[in-house]
Amino acid sequence: MSKIYEKAPAKINLVLDVLRKREDGFHEVEMIMTMVDLADRLEMEELPRDQILLSSQAGFIPLDEKNLAFQAARLLKERYGVRRGVYIHLDKQIPVAAGLAGGSSDAAAALKGLNRLWNLGLPTEELEALGAELGSDVPFCIRGGTALARGRGEKLETVPRPPQCWVILAKPPINVSTADVYGKFRVGDVKEHPSIPQMLDALSRQSFQDVCASLGNVLENVTLHRYPEVRQIKDCMIKSGADGVLMSGSGPTVFGLVAKEAKVSRVYNALRGFCKEVYVARMLT
Ligand code: ATP
Q: What is the interface pTM, i.e. ipTM, of the complex?
């Protein structure tokens, strides 16, 4: 019985801007996203019976049709008439409901892995289109690398990767719902929008300093105000010497970019003083 593995890396937003609320309820966004090497790992194995089975060592995620990896498998089966069963084990390393697109990345890894396991031969563009049916961040998680995302996040353009650096991620012990944050967001409240052209320019010049200076996320307006612990983490990262600091997605995870290895332990130790979930990662190149 064949078995395959697929990694599902976490994403961070270097820029997240919201332009307006659309008629369909979604928000029109402009984001620059990139992957880090903090990753879930999916093990996918053929089952003798035609069913989708899920397991995980993480006790707090759904293992039924609410799980995005389950939905990915079901979508492929329905769309391409696959009558084979699969057992998916999710080794969760990415914190849940953290603004790091853990669920979306699992869905992307399931689509890519099952495309191989079931010999469907679907090209990446088709997988991305299927991914968009599962969630706005899924197409980017399929493509990987670094991308400018428009629309509700599904219209992608690959852009240069950021220069290699350390990425320190800290998640306070609170659950933040993405829908809730977008629900409370008002474009009119934003005093200063981050500049996509400025970040693209910094990326094309591979200037670490300018990448740090161009970080921006308008959703901080909502999350930082509602959850003082997120602001506290941001302040701590800045004070302890991170070169660039930003909240990822709708939060609550905050990431700090650090160029010099010698500085990593200083930032890490400062955070560990009051935050249990701290991760040290590298940009995925
Ligand atoms: P995003 O930034 O894309 O909104 P997130 O990183 O904030 O996502 P996720 O970790 O994807 O959040 O989890 C959001 C919710 O999705 C969880 O509360 C969980 O119930 C559900 N979920 C569904 N599938 C998964 C999965 N494979 N891993 C984690 N959570 C999942």
A: 0.93
